[in-house]
Structure formats: C-alpha cells, structure tokens
Amino acid sequence: MTDLARIAPFDPAWPELITDPYPIFAQIRESDPFHWSKHGYWVVSRYDHVREVLMNRKDFGTGDFAANLKLFYGSDFDVLANSGYRWLSEVFIAQDPPQHTRIRGLVTGSLTAKRVRALEPRIKEICQELTDAFVADRHADLMTQFAYQLPVMVICELMGIDYHTPEMAELIAAIPEAFVVFEARKLTEHELATANRRIDELEAFFRAEFENRLAHPRDDLLTALAQTGTAADGLTIHEATTVAIALFGAGFETTANIIGNGLYLLRRHPDQWDRLVADPSGLAVSTNEEVLRYESSLVATYRTALGDTTIAGHPVKAGERVLTLVGAANRDGRKFGDPERFDIARGAADHMSFGGGIHFCVGAELARIEGRIAFEHLATVLPGLKVDLDKAQWRANFLFRGLTRLEARWG
Known about the structure:
Strand 10 (393-394) and strand 11 form a beta hairpin. The chain has one domain (16-409): CATH 1.10.630.10. Helix 15 (270-278) runs antiparallel to helix 16. The chain is an alpha+beta fold. It has helices spanning 16-19, 22-31, 47-55, 65-73, 83-90, 99-110, 113-117, 120-134, 142-147, 149-159, 168-178, 189-215, 221-227, 237-268, 270-278, 280-294, 326-329, 364-381; strands spanning 34-36, 41-44, 60-61, 139-141, 301-305, 309-311, 314-316, 321-324, 386-387, 393-394, 403-405, 407-409. It comes from Sphingomonas psychrolutea. Keywords: Heme, Iron, Metal-binding, Monooxygenase, Oxidoreductase.
C-alpha cells in the first residue's frame, strides 16, 4: 500500500464526493488502488479490480447483512427491528444464492424483455406529453418536470398502477426517504425513523395492490409477480411486496439520474449537444451509454468476501467488506481511451454502471430504452435547450449520484 499520509483513508462523508467525486477517485485509483478505509473496509477503484469483484460470485457476495450494518451502528444495534433495514435485508439484491437465485429468477420471468420492449411506443408518447406541458413556457426544471416524471409514469404503466391515484405524490416522496437505508453509514435517528415509516407505508400500498391483482388479474407486472405464487416455489405476497418496492423505486431513480446527469453533461460540453441535435436518432444510444460511463448514477457498491481470497494479489479475509468505486472504474484509462473526455460517439457499453454478475441490474434494459428515447426526444423538440449549470443541485447521497434541480431555458 502506498503512503497514506498523501491519501487520507476513504470516507464517503467527504463533501467533495457530492460536488465532484472524480478528482478523489482518480487520486485513489492511480496512487492507492487497494485502499483501506477508516470505516473498516477495502476500497477498489481500477476497472479490472472492480469488475473482478462484481463478477466473482464464488468469492464475493452480500454477506451477513446484520453484521455489515453493525460496522456502523455497533454490536448492540438491532438491525432487523427497523422496518427499513428488515425490508432491505429481504430484497434479492441484498441476498446471496440460493435465495437470491430463486427470487431473481421469478422477477426476471415476470419482467420479460417482451414486456419491456412493448412499452417503447408509450414511452415516446409520455415524452411528448411532458414536453407539450411546458415547451411554450420556454423554461422548466427538467428534473421535476421531465426526468422524474417520465420513469415514474413508465413504471406505473408497467406495474398497472394509476399514475393519477391520490397516493402517488406520497409514494414518490417515500422512495428517497426510504432508500436512504442503502447508504453505508450510520443514519441519524430522524432519518432512520422516517425510513421505517416510509417502508411501512410502501408495504401497505403494494400489499393492497397484490391482493387486488389476485382477485382481479390484469395484464401487468404486478399480476405477473402475484401469480408466481401459484407455483410451488413462487413468491409469497410478502416477497412480492418487497420486490415491488425495490422495482418501483429503482425503476425511476436510476432513469431520472441518467437523464438529469446527461443533460447536465451535455450543457458542460456544448459541442456534444450540437452533435446530438444534428443526429438525434443516430447518436441517442451511444449518448446514453457515455452518460452512464462518464457520470454514473451508481457511484459505488459493496460486496463481502465469502471466504479468504485475493484481489489483484492482495489478501482479503473472509467477512471483510469491499467498496467498489464504479465511478472511478468507469474513468480508468487502462480500459477507456482518453477517459476524461465526454464523447457521445464513444459507444462503449462495457462500463460497470449497472453492476455485474448475478447482481446485474434487472431493469437495465428498461433504463436504456428510456434514456435513449428521452435524449432523442429532447434533442429533437428542444434543440436550443440551455441548462443553467450554476443553479444545478446535486443530491447529498454518495452511492447514487443525481440532481434534485436542473433549470433550463430555450428560445
């Protein structure tokens, strides 16, 4: 390990990680790529090392959920007595085989490629409806008026939930307050109490939706998930509810961040916006992939060593946690040529922004479709779009990078 007097032990609470994490990522990646954090876990940052950890299901997994949280709260903390953490411990993305394998298989069997691709015409209609609502104003907050609304409306369409239901505003507000449990840190008493309450509310809503689908089946994702319960090893209503909350939240958070981060970058690099405007249909796919690489919504993710192993020759003991810096890996010059250059024609889809291995994002195809359609639509309908970079606000969240405000004008 290199001299840590030059590189302070990694701390996800550093404020610079919210405003611009990449100088810190570069320093760690180039000078101390196998790095020990003061919080008690390894930090890996080079592309090959990150990929090795995320793809290796034999040596790395999610590990002991409660033990991992006690690193932050102390040995006396009752992790599963909190609704938020109890819910997260039951989500398949936080589990290892065989439970992960069973539930993920049932989810992917319901969230089929055919079902997702069939949404494409409706996604285009929603984009048009949203921009029609504000185009004449010549200004908008693109996060609240487009980036968030598009994927929420799409996931509602997929699940068969009425977007105009009176509970929708509270459901949307509940997700970021509940999903704070994903953060690898000790939450404040208020944060944890709020997360617990929000998970209770979300569980009540989706449990009622599943009971309705069993009584009145429809052609939607919630019905498909509920009906797996008719099989011997299918989802219970409780399991289906747990899955639905995860899909609902991730289904709009990830895409909203892709769109918001992309529009921010395209304003910082106006030559790339001009290229997209000149060829929206031809460059929308590669634009989406370059946004995912350059300004990933998923900045980092954790794994636990399932046994004594090594990473790039460095020993890792069973039970030790590893933080993989996805954002650093995506800008590793050993993998990507001229990695600090934002180039929408790069076409590199081998970034790590959707994770990897058995935990590869189940909603990746939908997110890619939504992002591609959104960038093509906005470049076509609002070619004179100019984002106000000075007023852009980044969310105070280390693991998931995205904006809460993105004001724009056009002529």
